[in-house]
Write a structure and sequence with these properties.
This protein is α/β, with parallel strands linked by helices. It has 2 domains: 3-193, Ribosomal Protein S5, domain 2, CATH 3.30.230.10; 207-437, Rossmann fold, CATH 3.40.50. Helix content is 36%, strand content 17%. The chain is built from 22 helices and 19 strands. The N and C termini lie far apart (76 Å).
Length: 517
């Protein structure tokens, strides 16, 4: 048989699209042609596959005209993931393995020149897509991957994932019926990996390390309970970064679906670590990061920091120092929970449901309002510095809180703060109330649903409207303050929103006004 078909998958963003690797052997001038919108990395597979087959002691049909087609032809293909399916297709077309036995399997893996299999990115996305596409026939869908990638893919419940270390480990399972007397034993080179039940790991840092800063701690609790974004403003050394890095530990444990989605995005960027399974990510890019680094892009498109922080925390320290274009690119994802990257040839969408925690100094020198250090900035410099943050971006940040500098003796004598576990219990209880009432976090309430589920008393609404008029808030800012008030009421166990809840929410949108911006 001179024609064979092998199944694999190509990555388009977080979606793993099915690919048919078609291999045809014909008489004629010896050649090795690879078609199907293949990237340079894929075209280089010709040399890797040729050497791997020869060094594994198998016969490479060098006297044939070899044509490899990666279908569909209009789907871009990149990376070395097609090395293994191409090699298997050549061996099946030349009759060295059974083409029929490959029908219900999918393969991906990069080959070394000696035939060893190397991991590929996006294995978890491939496993999720295979399980989704298989539907009721999921038990017949089987995936073969290299070490490292197979362990990721096996995290998907009910997935049938097999790990192979060498090309020969795969060949031994697909020999023709006449040559395969029995199924070869698993010798460590080939193994089936069952869905792993890995315990969710706790967050390595604890809020108990923070002494004082009661207002900031309260703001963190509200942000965690309602899914709100947060901006902390204070002088250097006041504890803004310390608080931000402990914020993820206040969030509820991840569900299995959330953990899979978060790990799938990390797998695309080769950042997935099995020991951090179920731990909410905290991404903290440097303030020199570009807009592409933050929201994603490139060719082919890769996820940015906002997607890598999916179901976790994006911490932007020194917020005004980020490029203006990078900050403005955050506006749509903060509202929608996803980012759509459009290019001339394709459009790719990545999830980006993150919680933004940002920190900044009050002025260029950092000491505006400091109790002991004198500020060296002029009012014009302060205004220009804080003006680097546009009104539309600040409008989308729900909570603004001051983090004042504390005297050194306070840090030496003050008792440790409340632990993250105790705060997390209140956060989980508040989130459970919002889920039972409306099926989503308070931050996601909008339009008619906000009017229906806020349950605000008439006096509370009148207070909010008066504050919004005096402070010149936009409609978006007013609605966000009402969402925060709803979260404060949930933390207090209240059925409706009263004036005290709204009054506290109003205080969290006035920090920059106090400093003269």
């Amino acid at each position: 048989m001179s024609l064979s078909l092998v199944r694999s998958r190509a990555l388009l963003g977080l979606d793993a699209r099915p690919v048919q690797v078609e291999v045809h052997l014909a008489n004629g001038l010896p050649s090795f042609t690879l078609v199907g919108l293949a990237d340079t990395e894929v075209k280089e597979a010709r040399e890797r596959v040729r050497s791997a087959i020869a060094n594994a002691g198998l016969e490479f049909p060098s006297n044939k005209r070899i044509t490899v087609n990666l279908a569909p032809a209009d789907l871009p293909k990149d990376s070395g993931r097609f090395d293994l399916p191409i090699a298997l297709g050549i061996l099946a077309a030349s009759g060295q393995i059974s083409a029929a036995r490959l029908a219900d399997w999918e393969f991906a893996g990069e080959l070394s020149l000696g035939g060893e299999l190397r991991p590929v990115r996006g294995a978890l996305a491939m496993s999720l897509a295979l399980h989704r596409d298989a539907g009721v026939d999921a038990t017949n869908a089987r995936l073969v991957l290299p070490p490292g990638s197979a362990e990721e893919a096996a995290l998907v419940p009910q997935a049938r994932v097999y790990r192979a270390r060498h090309l020969l480990d795969v060949i031994a399972r697909f020999l023709p019926e006449s040559a395969a007397a029995s199924e070869p034993p698993d010798d460590g080179g080939w193994a089936r990996l069952s869905a792993q039940a890995i315990a969710h790991t706790g967050h390595p840092t604890d809020l108990a390390d923070v002494k004082g800063q009661a207002a900031a701690r309260r703001a963190l609790e509200i942000a965690a309970a309602g899914g709100h974004s947060l901006l902390m403003l204070g002088p250097p050394g006041s504890g803004k970064s310390m608080l931000a890095h402990r914020f993820a530990g206040l969030l509820p444990p991840m569900s299995t679906l959330e953990a899979l989605e978060s790990a799938a995005v990390a797998s695309l960027a080769r950042r997935f670590e099995l020991e951090r399974w179920g731990q909410r990510p905290t991404c903290a890019p440097h303030h020199s990061a570009s807009a592409v680094a933050l929201v994603g892009g490139g060719s082919p498109p890769r996820p940015g920091e906002i997607s890598l922080a999916h179901h976790g925390v994006l911490f932007l320290d020194e917020l005004p120092e980020f490029p203006r274009a990078a900050l403005e690119a955050l506006r749509e994802p903060l509202e929608s929970g996803h980012i759509r990257i459009s290019r001339a040839a394709m459009q790719t969408e990545f999830p980006a449901r993150f919680q933004l925690v940002a920190a900044m100094n009050p002025c260029p020198c950092g000491f505006l309002g400091h109790p002991t250090q004198a500020c060296r900035c002029t009012p014009d410099q302060v205004s220009r510095y804080q003006g680097k943050l546009s009104g539309p971006l600040l409008d989308r940040i729900d909570l603004h809180v001051e983090v004042p500098a504390l005297p050194p003796e306070h840090l030496l004598t003050h008792r440790m703060g409340e632990a993250s576990a105790a705060v997390r219990e209140r956060v989980v209880a508040a989130r459970d109330r919002s889920q039972a009432r409306q099926g989503m976090a308070n931050q996601s309430l909008a339009g008619r649903m906000l009017d229906q589920h806020a349950l605000a008393e008439p006096a509370a609404l009148q207070f909010l409207h008066t504050a919004a008029a005096r402070l010149c808030w936009s409609a978006r800012g007013t609605h966000r303050a009402l969402r925060v008030a709803r979260t404060i009421a949930d933390l207090a166990g209240a059925q409706g929103v009263n004036v005290s809840h709204v009054a506290e929410a109003v205080q969290y949108r006035r920090v920059l006004k106090k400093t003269g911006a």
